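In pairs, describe these two lines:
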Amino acid sequence: MMQKQQVELEVVETDRALEEIRKAGTEDVVYKSAGPLLIKSKKDDVIKELEEKKELSNTRVMVLTKQETRVKDNLKEVENKINQMIRGAQGSPSGSVPSSKP
């Protein structure tokens, strides 16, 4: 869930960067980050890279959402099985778990 939030934050930051770079004029100098360095780049190239990054991040969010749903479903299933076992144990006279033998 935390990983999903980080990726969603990345999408928001990428959107903001795209907004700002689109405001820049055609003659304005544009730089992109490469680790600790800023490198002079073409505006169109930076826009293309940011759009690809955003698309990849959105895909990761979808995958993480599906994984999260699957984990929650599995957790509910296990919780239901445990509750059934507890109810079964409470129903037996000695408080032990009933055997599966007929």
Notes: DSSP finds two helices and two strands in the chain. The mean pLDDT is 89.
